[in-house]
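Notebook entry, structure prediction.
Reason for the run: the old model in the group folder had no record of what sequence produced it. Starting over properly, with the input documented here first.
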Amino acid sequence: MKTITVNRQVINKTKDFKTFTDCFENIEGNAKDLLNEVLKGHAFCVAKLKENSNGYCSKKSSNFNSGYIIAVDIDNKVGDKKLTIEEGYKTFEEAAELDLVKNHASFMYTSPSNSNDHNRFRIVFELSEEVKDKDKFQEIVKIITSWLGGDAQTTSFAQGFFGSKDAKNKFFGHKLNVKSLQEKIKIVKERKQTRGFEFGTGTYYNPKDFNYSDFKEILAFIFKHGKIENEIWYKIPAILKHKCSLENDKIVKLISETIGEVGDTLSKIEHGKEYLGKA
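New structure, fully documented this time:
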């Protein structure tokens, strides 16, 4: 049986940060058990922690033992500004339909600060194996958070999260394969180094070598099943504009000829620089 690290002294949010920091416990359990703890309002830590002499664990980086759980905090904000749909705002239901979530996550739950007009929630992943190297674990946490547009401020390898009593939740029951994920991370690093595009078979291309027909073929591939996830759709005009140096009218024409409608393409182009950090 795996170990989950929870704090049963905290119900939902608290300002008593000493209790929040120093009263964690390592208990036997899996992702389903963790969800049950969360729905009782109990806090949890993504890391298994070294125990103190009193049997409790302090949520400190120096107490990291191993990582087994990843939690991505989706607060749909940048600073104090609420995201718009064009900027990547995702509802709980939309996030549940993302491939990475519905096919690889363990569960989701709404945070205590969630509201109907401003969805705030967490996506939790159970790893296929414990990661004992804290730097490798944090790398995994950061890249999963980045892929889902989560809060980069909540990616410590000993990150704690509040529970949410009787929260809206969805259980998937998947485990995220660590070895497969590390291979994908390796590819992402190589892609950043080449500053090119991956298309089809893992070959890397310089976008300056593409012509109009090439871009049209790539877009056709992306939209081959019709509707795509919003997190992908809002990045496409930004990439075409700022990475591929295409003019606005050419971008609009490409999208129009590929999917038959322009939609809010011009708005996405206008806010392109804001999206590039998420691309």
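Summary: The CA atoms of residues 48 and 66 lie 5 Å apart.
The old model has been moved to the deprecated folder.
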